[in-house]
Design goal:
single chain; 596 residues; Butyryl-Coa Dehydrogenase, subunit A, domain 1; Butyryl-CoA Dehydrogenase, subunit A, domain 2; seven-stranded mixed beta sheet; binds flavin-adenine dinucleotide; Diverse_Acyl-CoA_DH; 3-methylmercaptopropionyl-CoA dehydrogenase; AcylCo_DH-like_C; AcylCoA_DH/ox_N_sf; oxidoreductase
Length: 596
C-alpha cells in the first residue's frame, strides 16, 4: 500500500541551487568535467532502481525476514533480495564513487550519498548489504597493504563480494576496549582468530559469492583496553593467488537475531573458530583503521533515517489529502463530502510539516557533508582538504544522531497521521518506525555521538572548529542581513549562534571541576547544535527560494513555507534544550544508585 517517488526535484535544488556542486566540482581535478545533466541523469536512473527494483521488496522483506539453516550455517535473504543485488552489481551501482584504479567509476561521494538516500527510502534492510561493503572498501582503501588492496578492492568495488564490520562481542559493545577475540600469529604473515562476535549486520547471506569480514581482535602481547586492538581481514572463503576462491575459512554464522525492525538484513552471531586472517595497518592500532569504516557508517546511518523520513512523509501527505474525518474548525472545506480531508486540521499539518522540514533539512545536511568529503579527497590545495576534513569530523556525530532522532520523530508523526491505520501493518507505516529505531542505537548510540561532539570535537579543541563553522554562518548572515526579507531567518539564527557560544563556554567551565557535566549536557547540546546547523541550511535554502519567489514555480513558495514552519515551530525547541543542558549534573547524579 505504501508508495515512493524519488525526490529528484528537491535533490536538484540542494545540489545545484543551494550547494552549487558543479562549481565546486570544477575546482576538483577528478570531477572537473562533471556537468549538471550527467549528475541529474545518474540520480534519475538511481531513483528508478530504488523505486522500481528495491521498493517492491521492502514489505515482504520485513514479513519474511532472513532464515538460517543451522546445519550448513547458510542464511537465506528474503525473496528478491539476491536478484536485486545482482542487478545492482550488473548496473555498476556499487562502483559509483569508488576509485577507478580498482574498477570504480570515480564519481563524487555527493552523488553516491544522494543515491543512498533513495535506496534507504526504498528498502533500508537491503541497503545495509552494499552500504557496509562500501565502508569496508573505504577502510581497506585507506589502510590496506598494496597486496590486500589488489586482492580485495576490485571485488568490493564491483560489489561481487560484500563486507562487514565485526566489532561487537557479548560483553563489549560501546566499550570496545573490553573485547576478547584473540589473534595468534602463524609465522607466515597470517593470524588464526578465535572468538565470538554478535549483532554483525550482513554477516552471512546468499547475495554474493564471498564476504570480507573486518574483524577486531587482540594479539597475544596486546596491552589491555582500546590501545591493544588490531584489525584483521577475514574472508568467508580464502582467496587463491590467482584471485579464485579457495577453501571455506573458519568463520560462520551461529545464529541470527530476531529483532524489532530491518528484518531483511541478517544480524548474525559470528563464530571465529581459528579463522585465518591478515593484519590491516599496524598491530594494536586497529581502532584507528576501523574508524574509517565507522565514520563512513555513521554518515550512512544518518542517511538511513533521512530515507525513512522522506518515504514516511510522502505516504502521510498522500493519506492526509485522501482521508476524510470531521470538519475544519473554521467550517466545512469539502462541502461535497460528508467530512473534510484531515489535512485541514492544524495538528495534522504540524506532523506533516515536521517530517517535511526534517527531510529537506536532512537532505541539505547530508549533501553538504558529502560535498565536504569530496573536497577533503580532491581539493587541489592541502589547506582546503584539511579544513574540509575537520568540518566533516565536527558534523559526523550530528548527521548520525540528529538525523536519526529526527527520523524517529518524523516516522512516528507520519504513523500518527494514519490514526489506527498507521499502527496496523497494512499501510506500511509502522515498519518505518520500527526500522528507524535501530539507527539511534548502532554505530555508537546517539548518547555516544553526543559525547563525541561535545567532549572530543568541541571541548577537545577549545571550541576552535565550532568557531570556524560559526564564522561561516556569520559570514552568510552578514552578506544577507541587508535584505529585509531574510531577517525572519537570520535573526533567530544569529541569536542561536550566540547562545551556543555561551552554552559551550559554560559547560566547558563546569567540566573543568566536574567531568560528568559533559555527560549531563551532551545529548541536549548535540540537539541544540543540530538545530544551529539546520537553521543555517534552512536560511540558505530560504535565500534561494526568495530569489525565485517571482518565478511562479510553486516549488520555491513551498520551500519558503517550510522554512518559515521550521523557524516558527521546530527551532524554538532549543530554548528548553538549553535550559535542560544548563541544569547540569546535580539533578541526575544526586540520587544514590540503590534508590533506583
Ligand atoms: C540490528 C543491529 C545491528 C548491528 N550491527 C553491528 C555490526 O554490523 N557490527 C558490529 O560490530 N556491531 C553491530 N551492532 C552492535 C551495536 O553497534 C551495539 O549494539 C551498540 O554499539 C551498543 O552496544 P551495546 O548493545 O553493547 O550497548 P551497551 O554498550 O551495553 O550500552 C547500553 C546503554 O548504555 C549507554 N552507555 C554505554 N556507555 C556509555 C558511556 N560511556 N556514556 C554514556 N552512556 C553509555 C549506551 O548509550 C546505551 O544506552 C548492531 C546492533 C544491532 C542491534
Amino acid at each position: 500500500m505504501s508508495q515512493y517517488t524519488p525526490p529528484l526535484r528537491d535533490m536538484q535544488f540542494v545540489l545545484h541551487e543551494v550547494l552549487k556542486v558543479e562549481e565546486a566540482f570544477k575546482t576538483m581535478p577528478a570531477h572537473a568535467e562533471l556537468d549538471v545533466d550527467t549528475i541529474n541523469a545518474v540520480l534519475e536512473e538511481g531513483g528508478k532502481f530504488a523505486s522500481e527494483v528495491l521498493f517492491p521488496l521492502n514489505r515482504e522483506g520485513d514479513e519474511i525476514g532472513c532464515t538460517l539453516d543451522p546445519q550448513t550455517h547458510a542464511v537465506t535473504t528474503p525473496p528478491g533480495f539476491a536478484e536485486a543485488y545482482r542487478q545492482f552489481v550488473d548496473g555498476g551501482w556499487a562502483a559509483l564513487s569508488c576509485d577507478p584504479e580498482y574498477g570504480g567509476q570515480g564519481l563524487p561521494v555527493t552523488l553516491n550519498q544522494a543515491f543512498y538516500e533513495m535506496l534507504n527510502s526504498a528498502n533500508q534492510a537491503w541497503t545495509m548489504y552494499p552500504g557496509l561493503t562500501h565502508g569496508a572498501y573505504d577502510a581497506l582503501h585507506a589502510h590496506g597493504t598494496p597486496e590486500q588492496k589488489a586482492t580485495y578492492l576490485p571485488k568490493l568495488t564491483s560489489g561481487e563480494w560484500t563486507g562487514t564490520m565485526c566489532l561487537t562481542e557479548p560483553h563489549a559493545g560501546t566499550d570496545l576496549g573490553l573485547l576478547r577475540s584473540k589473534a595468534e600469529p602463524q609465522g607466515d604473515g597470517t593470524y588464526r582468530i578465535t572468538g565470538e562476535k554478535i549483532f554483525i549486520s550482513s554477516g552471512e547471506h546468499d547475495m554474493a559469492e564471498n564476504i570480507i569480514h573486518l574483524v577486531l581482535a587482540r594479539l597475544p602481547d596486546a596491552p589491555a583496553g582500546s590501545r591493544g586492538i588490531s584489525l584483521f581481514i577475514v574472508p568467508k572463503f580464502h582467496v587463491n593467488a590467482d584471485g579464485s576462491l579457495g577453501e571455506r575459512n573458519g568463520i560462520y554464522c551461529g545464529a541470527i537475531e530476531h529483532k524489532m525492525g530491518i528484518h531483511g538484513n541478517s544480524t548474525c552471531q559470528m563464530v571465529l573458530d581459528g579463522a585465518v586472517g591478515t593484519l590491516v595497518g599496524e598491530p594494536h592500532k586497529g581502532l584507528a583503521a576501523m574508524f574509517v569504516m565507522m565514520n563512513a557508517a555513521r554518515l550512512g546511518v544518518g542517511m538511513q533515517s533521512l530515507g525513512l523520513t522522506e518515504v514516511a512523509y510522502q505516504n502521510a501527505a498522500a493519506y492526509a489529502k485522501d482521508r476524510t474525518q470531521s470538519r475544519a474548525l473554521s467550517g466545512a472545506k469539502a462541502k461535497d463530502k460528508a467530512a473534510d480531508p484531515i489535512i485541514v486540521h492544524p495538528d495534522v499539518r504540524k506532523m506533516l510539516l515536521t517530517a517535511r522540514a526534517y527531510a529537506e533539512g536532512g537532505r541539505a545536511l547530508g549533501m553538504q557533508v558529502a560535498l565536504l568529503i569530496d573536497e577533503a579527497q580532491n581539493a587541489p590545495d592541502e589547506a582546503t582538504r584539511r579544513d574540509a576534513e575537520a568540518t566533516v569530523a565536527l558534523l559526523t556525530p550530528i548527521v548520525k544522531a540528529f538525523l536519526t532522532d529526527n527520523g524517529w520523530l518524523a516516522t512516528s508523526h507520519c504513523m500518527q497521521v494514519f490514526g489506527g491505520h498507521g499502527f496496523i501493518r497494512e499501510w506500511g507505516m509502522e515498519q518505518y518506525v520500527r526500522d528507524n529505531r535501530i539507527n539511534m542505537i548502532y554505530e555508537g548510540t546517539n548518547t555516544i555521538q553526543s559525547l563525541d561532539l561535545l567532549g572530543r570535537k568541541v571541548l577537545g579543541d577549545q571550541g576552535a572548529q565550532l568557531k570556524k563553522f560559526g564564522a561561516q554562518i556569520q559570514q552568510f548572515a552578514m552578506a544577507n542581513m541587508q535584505d529585509a526579507r531574510m531577517q525572519e531567518f537570520l535573526l533567530p539564527l544569529a541569536d542561536l549562534g550566540e547562545k551556543v557560544t555561551k552554552l559551550t563556554a559554560e559547560v566547558g567551565m563546569k567540566a573543568m571541576s566536574n567531568p560528568e557535566e559533559v555527560g549531563a549536557a551532551a545529548v541536549d547540546y548535540l540537539r541544540v547544535v543540530g538545530h544551529l546547523v539546520f537553521a543555517y541550511l534552512w536560511a540558505r535554502m530560504a535565500r534561494v527560494a526568495l530569489d525565485k519567489a517571482d518565478s511562479g514555480d510553486r516549488f520555491y513558495a513551498a520551500k519558503l513555507f517550510t522554512a518559515r514552519f521550521y523557524f516558527a515551530k521546530l527551532l524554538p525547541e532549543t530554548a528548553s534544550l538549553i535550559r535542560s543542558a544548563r541544569a547540569g549534573v546535580e539533578p541526575l547524579m544526586a540520587m544514590e544508585e540503590d534508590w533506583f
